[in-house]
Amino acid sequence: MADKPASGAKRFWKLASMTAEVGGRFAQSKMQELVQKKEAAEQLRKEMLDKNSEVIAKTLGELKGAVMKVGQMASITTDILPESLADALKILQKEAPPVDFSVIREQVESELGDTIVHLFSSFDEEAYAAASIGQVHRAQLHDGRDVVVKVQYPGVDKALASDLRHLKMSLKASGLLKIDPQSLDELFAELKARLEEELDYTKEAQNIEFFYQHYKDNELLIVPRFIPERSSARVLTLEHEAGDNLAEVQERNYSQETINQLGNLILETLAEQIFVLGVLHADPNPANFACREDGRLIVYDYGCVKRLLPEVVSAYADMLRSALRHDYTEVEASLIRLGARNLAGEPVPTAYYREWRDLFAEPFLAEEGYNFATTDIHLRAAKKVPQLLANYLSSFKPPAEIAFLDRTIGGHYGNLRAMGATCQVKQITDAFVINSNER
Question: 326 by DSSP, 3-state: which?
Fold first, then answer.
C-alpha cells in the first residue's frame, strides 16, 4: 500500500533533483567523450543513457500523477525516445501500488458531499485497479446495482503544469531526446491538453455518453453506463461490466474463432472512430478493454479521447492509399500535410519510403487475414530506426496533432499480438479507406 502521492514542494524538489542528476551526468559524459577513442566514447554514452533512463523511470513511478502517465504513454514507442528509456519505462505499464483507503475515502466524501456509507450500500476498501492518476474500487448502490468508482488522487490536477514543465526540462537535459526543441514543445502542449481533459471527470462523463449513444445498438461493443448522481470532477461512478483481460484469452481457452472475431471488432471500431466519427478512444492500454466468450468487447476509461481534425483524417487516409499503390510522391505530400515531413531537412529518396512501406504494408496485403500472433514487424522496424537517425533525422519530425493517433494504432497492434488474433486487415481497410474516398 502506497502513501498519498507527493505534492507541493516535495514533488517540485524530486523532479528538480532528477533534472539536475540526469543533466549533470549528460554533461560529464560529453566531456569524457572528448578525450576517449570512438569505441570507448560510445560505451560511455550507452552507460550514461541507461543510467539516465533508469533514474527517470524510477522517479516517475514514485511520483505517480501526470509524469507517470506520460511515462506510460512513452513506453509504447521508440520513435521519440531511445530504446534504453522506452525499456526502462515499461515498468510503469504495470499496475501502480494503490494508495491507502483513508485517502480514497476522504476524496470521495469531499467530492460527493456525504459519507461513503450513505452514498453506497457497500464499498470495497481494497482497490480493484490502481493507475497513475487514480484508482478504481468496486461498490454497490442502494438500489442493488454493482458499480465501479474511479477516484482521482488528491492534488494530481493541481500539479499537472508543474509536472510537465519539469519533465520536459529533464528530458532536454538528459541527452535522451531524438527531436528538436520546437517539436518537443508542441508534443508537450498536446499532452497537456489531453491530460487536462483526462483529469476532469465531467469531460470523461460527456465522452462516455457520446460513445454510449453511438454504440447502444451495437450488440458486440459495450460502453458502461455513467451514474451522474455519484460522480463529480474527481470521482466517476459507472455500472460494472465484467470481462476477461485481452491478453488472457488463450489461457482462458477462448476459441480461435472468437479471438479472431474480437480482433476484427477492435480494428473495425478503430477504423470507424478514425475515418467516420473523427473521435478516437485514444488510450489503448489493455487494461481499458475486456472481453467475453460470446465475442463481446467492453471498452473502459474514456478520459483520453482525441477529436481528429478533418484535414488530419484526410491526409492520413491519403497517405495509406498512396503507400498501398506505391505512389511515393503522394506519400510525401501526405506527410507534409500531416506535419511529419520537415522540408528543411535532407531530401528523402523513393527507395527509403519504399523500404518502410513494404514493411508496414504487410498486414494490409494479407488476403486471407494477418496473423498477429507471429508478426515481428515491430522488431524489424526497431532495427531500421538507427538508419533513420543516421541519415534522415532532420527530414522528419513527430507532429503533435497525430501523436495520440499513432499511439493508439501502435497500442492496438500490441493488443492484437497479445491476443494472438488473425484479422482481416485488408478487408477492413478496403471498407473504411480504400473504397471510401468520401469519408
Answer: coil
Residue pair 284/412 in contact by the 8 Å Cβ criterion: yes
Provide the 3-class DSSP secondary structure of residue 156.
coil
In terms of phi and psi (left: phi > 0; alpha: psi -120 to 50; beta: otherwise), the region of 344 is alpha
- CA dist 262 and 401 (Å) reads 29
Contact (Cβ atoms closer than 8 angstroms) between residue 365 and residue 381: no
Question: Do the Cβ atoms of 136 and 149 come closer than 8 Å?
Answer: yes
How far apart are the C-alpha atoms of 167 and 176, rounded to whole Å? 12
CB 344 within 8 A of CB 394: yes
Residue of 100, 146, 217, 283 marked catalytic: 283
Sign of CA dihedral 243, 247, 252, 257: positive
Within 13 Å, how many C-alpha atoms sit on residue 417's CB side?
13
CA–CA dist 70, 164 (Å, integer)? 9
Angle at 111 between CA 107 and CA 117, to 5 degrees: 75
**3-state class of 397 per DSSP?**
coil
| Most distant pair of Cα atoms in the chain: their distance | 74
What is the DSSP track for 196-229?
Answer: HHHT-HHHHHHHHHHHHHHHTT-SSEE-PPB-GG
Q: Say whether 283 is catalytic.
A: yes
Per-residue pLDDT in tens (0 to 9) along the chain, 439 residues: 555 555 556 766 777 777 777 767 767 777 776 666 767 767 777 777 777 777 777 776 666 666 666 666 555 444 445 566 666 655 555 556 788 999 999 999 999 999 999 999 999 999 998 877 889 999 999 999 999 999 998 888 887 787 778 777 777 766 666 677 777 788 788 878 888 888 899 999 999 999 999 999 999 999 999 999 999 999 999 999 999 999 899 999 999 999 999 999 999 999 999 999 999 999 998 889 999 999 999 999 998 899 999 999 999 999 999 999 999 999 999 999 999 999 998 999 999 999 999 999 999 999 999 999 999 998 898 888 777 767 887 898 888 889 889 989 999 999 999 999 999 999 999 999 988 654 4
- In 107-203, DSSP assigns E strands to 122-123, 129-130, 134-140, 146-152
Neighbouring-strand partners of residue 137: 149
Amino acid at 212: Y
Question: Residue 161 gets which letter from DSSP?
Answer: H
